[in-house]
Design goal:
CATH class of chain A: Alpha Beta
Strand content of chain A: 25-35%
CATH topology of chain A: Alpha-Beta Plaits
Number of domains of chain A: 1
CATH architecture of chain A: 2-Layer Sandwich
Number of helices of chain A: 4
Distance between the termini of chain A: 12 Å
Strand order of the largest sheet of chain A: 1-3-2
Shape of chain A: globular
Oligomer: homodimer
Largest sheet of chain A: 3 strands, antiparallel
Largest interface: A-B, 33 and 33 residues
Structural class of chain A: alpha+beta
Helix content of chain A: 25-40%
Amino acid sequence: MRRVCFVLKVREERLAEYRRRHAEVWPEMRRALSESGWHNYSLFCDERGMVVGYLETEDFDAARAAMDKTEVNARWQAEMAPFFEGLDGRPDEGMIPLTELFHLP
Amino acid sequence: MRRVCFVLKVREERLAEYRRRHAEVWPEMRRALSESGWHNYSLFCDERGMVVGYLETEDFDAARAAMDKTEVNARWQAEMAPFFEGLDGRPDEGMIPLTELFHLP
């Protein structure tokens, strides 16, 4: 399993709504993620809207490509796009992995 | 297990050295972390020195307190302190957990 971490920026004034939406992610979206190889996937935020994602996957490019083929992901990303700052495209296309510099099992 | 994520800022001009140091963390430091309840612990960075930490632990306060009792942690944190920006004290004391807003097993 590869560990992946990325950072996104949610508009501070929409953070509360972003959190509410993520407390009730559609079951079909959760299922699509699992079936696409997104495991142990968490999102964290600070109070200013910095959002950190962490997941474990065999191959992040393949996991993103698999999600990209699902109809539910297109719907979800279209609804999430207005929450983000500094993204031209869809939020899932702005998930640039950071570099892992340390790991302890 | 609780999932914990925190963000620190390393001085950009010292990031390469910070990465080198973390490629060879002292075995006794790794052992102390494991014995103190730090599991699946990773550090990630971007090119400007933002460092994201992720770990899983039963109780983060207890895991930090257990590390705080070890002699090796005092030595390690003293050596790491000059790498960081915006921290008055030791880097391990600046690890403020973000808020988890989503999790998929």
